[in-house]
UniProtKB/TrEMBL annotation:
SMART domains: HTH_ICLR. The keyword Transcription applies. It comes from the Bacteria. Residues 13-73 form the HTH iclR-type domain. Residues 74-253 form the IclR-ED domain. SUPFAM superfamilies: GAF domain-like, Winged helix' DNA-binding domain. Gene3D superfamilies: 3.30.450.40, Winged helix-like DNA-binding domain superfamily/Winged helix DNA-binding domain (1.10.10.10). Keywords: DNA-binding, Transcription, Transcription regulation. PANTHER family: HELIX-TURN-HELIX TRANSCRIPTIONAL REGULATOR, ICLR FAMILY, HTH-TYPE TRANSCRIPTIONAL REGULATOR RV1719. The lineage of its organism: Bacteria, Bacillati, Actinomycetota, Actinomycetes, Streptosporangiales. It comes from Actinoallomurus oryzae. InterPro entries: GAF-like_dom_sf, HTH_MetabolicPath_Reg, Tscrpt_reg_IclR_C, Tscrpt_reg_IclR_N, WH-like_DNA-bd_sf, WH_DNA-bd_sf. This is IclR family transcriptional regulator.
């Protein structure tokens, strides 16, 4: 708080200062604070606190829980508390190398950064040259399978905030309508998290992807990509979903099995998943 010439406390003049005051109230990753507690801690009016809190929730910096407000996915990632990129790569790369060796497709690992996918690794030998992605590079999340797989597990209002007004067409297959995108994200969730991209970012390239999820939500995503019209990616879908779950379990070994589905896939389970992948469900 600042003070005026009479020594009385006044609210910070800028929005950034007010947001900083609120974020500093969460001095422990597990703390959950009620609105009145945050207002008392910051000295901000309840109405101002509530307005800023709701903005922070929409953007993923905080989340609204039964006990009040707590740190959200973006705050935890920024602090390295949920998603340490070096740790994710160390866990994921050996599994992605196996996935590439088994399928011959390009395997990629990425994270969601606002409305973009940032690539942490790309494994594919000669086949990787056909893809425009690069380690450290970005792609629009709405136009790639890897991005859609991660967007599918965000709260709808957060996805709206990230995508609204920024869904530009990359090819004639790119989804550019927010309502259509929400329909696509529902289909992804109905397929247990499998996302497909067919010529949506680059003509002639398709992919299948799945998110890597932890107790606090999505931390990364993986994908297999190849030329459209080659081997049908549906045949590799159970492998992609299995590898995503294995990465999750290795990153979060103490997570309850109820929160992290089993990575053991029976033939019957694979058939049921593949049965969902009919032409009507694919974009």
């Amino acid at each position: 708080m600042t003070s005026d010439t009479s020594g009385r406390a006044t609210a910070p003049p800028s929005m950034i200062e007010r947001m900083t005051l609120i974020m500093e109230a969460f001095d422990d990753r597990s703390v959950s604070l009620r609105l009145d507690e945050i207002a008392a801690h910051t000295g901000l009016p309840r109405s101002t606190s509530h307005r800023i809190l709701e903005q922070l929730v929409r953007l993923g910096w905080l989340r609204h829980t039964e006990g009040g407000y707590a740190l959200g996915r973006r705050a935890l990632q920024l602090g390295g508390l949920v998603s340490d990129h070096a740790e994710i790569r160390a866990v994921a790369v050996p599994l992605l190398e196996q996935l590439h060796a088994r399928t011959g497709k390009v395997a990629q690992l990425g994270i969601l950064d606002f409305a973009d996918v940032v690539y942490l690794d790309k494994i594919g030998g000669i086949g990787a040259a056909a893809l425009p992605s690069r380690v450290g590079g970005r792609s629009p999340a709405h136009a790639v399978g890897l991005g859609k797989a991660m967007l599918a597990w965000l709260p709808p209002e957060e996805a709206d905030t990230l995508l609204e007004g920024g869904m530009k067409a990359r090819t004639h297959n790119t989804i550019t309508d927010l309502l259509v995108m929400h329909q696509e994200l529902r289909r992804i969730r109905s397929r247990h998290g499998l996302a497909f991209e067919r010529d949506e970012y680059v003509a002639g390239i398709s992919s299948v992807a799945a998110a890597v999820r932890g107790p606090e939500g999505v931390v990364a995503g993986i994908s297999l990509s190849g030329e459209t019209g080659g081997d049908p990616l549906e045949r590799y879908a159970p492998l992609v979903l299995d590898v995503a779950k294995r990465i999750s379990r290795r990153l979060f070994p103490e997570t309850s099995p109820d929160d992290m589905p089993s990575t053991v896939w029976s033939d019957g389970m694979m058939e049921r998943i593949l049965g969902l992948l009919d032409d009507d469900t694919l974009m």
